[in-house]
Design a protein that fits this description.
The structure holds two protein chains of two kinds. By secondary structure, chain A is an alpha/beta fold. Chain A has twelve helices and eleven strands. In chain A, 30% of the residues lie in helices and 21% in strands. Chain B contains ten helices and nine strands. Chain B has two domains: 173 residues, no CATH class; 127 residues, no CATH class. Classes of the chains: A alpha/beta, B alpha/beta.
């Protein structure tokens, strides 16, 4: 079985069409005819995949939906003895094979952290696991980055294929797709591409090498855990850095690594569902205790939590892994243009903290 | 033009900073196209103040939302830079007694419009921007492919294209000569009218597609200077529970209409809700419709007269409009 195929640009849709007859396929596409952004959507034959720019939102929701039902329940009263109530629970979960085509290294990398949190601890989250095990990432060698991108600053880079199953190298007239592991090979065969010519293979190698030499982001944010602790109590620092913060949830919702969630029971009559939904440390209700006390009462503590979580707590807990993939979406989407690179970089003791 | 406006701003703040505890303005952000709110607390910060058409944020919300600007020290005031639209937010906040006029030193900036940065990036094909200059009506951007002269007019935000109050309606000092408003009160609701010209089904389809993309990140609410419930917003409270955590269309629809209805007769159309939406949902349109109704029924335009009482904040048994 060939481990790489060439898909001519004008047959990409046919290849995706073949794949979508066997599995769910998600591709980046324009958010609307009059919109500037793009997002991952289920493949449709009339859809034009938009592979030359980063999407507004990462493919996080494909594997970790914004809201999912953990269980549904129903109470039934015993007609003979109404004080007796029976409860029925249904907590089935299922994943079905899903391909995310056209992700970027930063998009795929986000799930490496999710894996640690949801599958490597003492408990396994079966809802996440079932979808994750059924998910495949066909990841682009990234050739488009902007002033908000900083993947190299967090130990990744435009050709980082960690967490990906297939590598997609965009060439002049098509895409060279390579299987990076065994489980990806059936997907490659389904695409029914051409056998790549030597020239195509050479072009792809050259492009990959060039891209791998690029440094996206000019600071090193991988060793900030100690600096963070030094600044933890420094109220003036957090005030200086994030006075602008509006405490909205954009940065966390567009973040490929933010996994915090909330669990609520939504009940009507005798029936209900227990939902898991994305939470945000920017929201007031995050860590709000039943007593009414919140250890993170203002946006300063909440933003500090965001930085600490990604650059200090996670690396300490997960063997140096940074809880940030450098996609820059939080910077790009922030209503007031807060730059997390600057906040982390300035944690260093002697940094200027003028704001 | 940009340089001189920024220079005048520096001179003005230098002259007044002795009487001010903080000055709210804009400064350089993470790249030459993005400005970020700047809190000037000492004379050294003044040089970092900027005013140009890339200064897009309405700063007035910081005056009322916790933990915003510290209250002024004894005998001092808070300085704030406002464009026309921002000054109307200030008026609304003063009317509702959320801030007091006496505590403010208002630096008014007549505004020719601000840039829709997302559209600029999307339509101009710019990449790796090195520098940006503004000369008269041109945005001169230097990027990886050289210098580009882009007409500002082409990239103005929708809120600016329909602006009828470009000059601050209240101010202590005005930084520039007043500018001519772009539209009249009659023309300001063209976007709403063209949407309304569609059939009910078309409009339902329009809003279904638009609102379904909402993430419920609440950027629109938090960027709104007049959305002041903060931690008590019923979009999030569980007790009372008006909305569930579901992200289906009815919940999103309800949230946006709660937001809009709470702004009826109060919204000053600064357009921040629409600007900050990561999903590019034209949410200001909903508020524009409510304002159009307020204008037609109650003959009131929000945020113009600090002494006026907004129609929905009072009760008149002899009300003739309704």
């Amino acid at each position: 079985m060939s481990k790489q195929v060439f898909i001519p640009r004008d047959s990409l849709n046919q290849a995706l069409e073949r794949l979508s007859s066997k599995m769910n396929v998600w591709v980046p596409a324009a958010s609307g005819s009059n919109k500037c952004g793009s997002e991952f959507v289920p493949y449709r034959p009339d859809l034009i995949p938009l592979l030359n720019r980063q999407t507004t939102t990462p493919p996080k929701a494909v594997v970790f939906p914004q809201v999912e039902t953990l269980l549904s329940y129903e109470y039934t009263k015993d007609p003979d003895n109404p004080s007796r109530v029976k409860i029925q629970l249904d907590d089935t979960s299922a994943g079905s094979p899903t391909l995310i085509f056209g992700a970027r290294p930063c998009d795929a990398r986000g799930f490496l952290l999710f894996d640690q949190v949801f599958t490597r601890g003492p408990f396994t989250d079966k809802y996440y696991r079932d979808r994750r095990e059924n998910s495949y990432f066909a990841t682009l060698v990234c050739l488009e980055w902007d002033s908000a991108c900083f993947c190299s600053s967090v130990g990744s880079g435009p050709t980082d294929m960690e967490g990906s199953d297939l590598r997609v190298t965009p060439l002049k007239d098509g895409y060279l797709v390579e299987a990076l592991n065994e489980r990806a090979e059936p997907i490659l065969s389904l695409m029914e591409g051409d056998v790549p010519t030597d020239a195509q293979q050479q072009d792809a190698r050259k492009l990959q090498e060039e891209a791998s030499r690029q440094r996206v982001g000019n600071v090193d944010l991988t060793r900030s855990a100690t600096d963070f602790k030094g600044r933890f109590e420094d109220k003036a620092y957090w005030r200086a850095m994030v006075s602008q913060c509006l405490s909205c949830g954009v940065c966390t919702f567009v973040c490929p690594t933010c996994y915090c969630f909330s669990i609520t029971d939504e009940m009507q009559g005798l029936k209900g569902e227990r939902l898991r939904s994305w939470d945000s440390c920017m929201f007031f209700q995050y860590t709000l205790e039943a007593s009414g006390h919140n250890p993170r009462p203002t946006r300063f503590e909440r933003y500090r939590n965001r930085v600490g979580h990604k650059f200090s707590f996670i690396p300490e807990k997960y063997n140096g892994m940074i809880g940030c993939c450098g996609c820059g979406r939080c910077i790009r989407s922030c209503p007031v243009s807060i730059d997390i690179r600057r906040v982390v970089e300035n944690l260093k003791e002697n940094a200027c903290v003028c704001a | 033009m940009e340089a001189s406006a920024t220079t005048r701003l520096h001179q003005e703040v230098e002259a007044s900073i002795g009487r001010l505890s903080t000055v709210l303005g804009w400064g350089a952000g993470y790249d030459p196209l993005h400005m970020t709110p700047l809190f000037v607390r000492s004379p050294e910060d003044i040089a970092r103040l900027v005013w140009n058409p890339l200064c897009v944020q309405n700063l007035t919300g910081y005056l009322v939302k916790s933990p915003g600007v510290q209250p002024p020290e004894e005998g001092k005031k808070i300085g704030i830079c406002v464009r026309g639209c921002d000054s109307r937010s200030l008026v609304a906040l003063i009317q509702e007694k959320l801030i007091s006029r006496e505590n403010l030193y208002i630096i008014g900036i007549p505004c020719r419009g601000t840039v829709d940065i997302r559209r600029l990036m999307n339509e101009s094909g710019l990449s790796n921007i090195r520098s940006v200059r503004i000369e008269k009506d041109l945005l001169i951007v230097d990027d990886a492919n050289g210098a580009h002269n882009l007409p500002l007019e082409r990239f103005l935000a929708r809120r600016c294209l329909r602006c009828r109050h470009p000059n601050p309606v209240i101010h202590d000092v005005l930084l520039d000569e007043p500018v001519t408003p772009r539209t009249t009160a009659e023309d300001a609701y063209r976007d709403v009218e063209s949407l309304e010209a569609q059939s009910l089904d078309q409009r339902r389809a329009f809003w279904s597609v638009e609102l379904d993309r909402c993430l419920r990140c609440y950027a629109c609410r938090n960027a709104c200077p007049l959305c002041i419930c903060q931690n008590r917003c019923i979009a999030e409270t569980r007790d009372p529970r008006w909305l569930t955590q579901r992200v289906n269309l009815p919940e999103k629809f309800l949230y946006h209409f709660i937001h809009a209805l709470h702004l009826a007769g109060r919204c000053t159309e600064c357009g921040e809700c629409e600007r900050v939406c990561p999903m590019e949902i034209p949410v200001t349109l909903i508020k524009e419709k409510l304002n159009q109704i307020t204008r037609d029924l109650l003959h009131y335009e929000a945020g113009l007269d600090p002494e006026a009482v907004p129609p929905l904040l009072t009760f008149n048994p002899a009300e003739a409009g309704i």
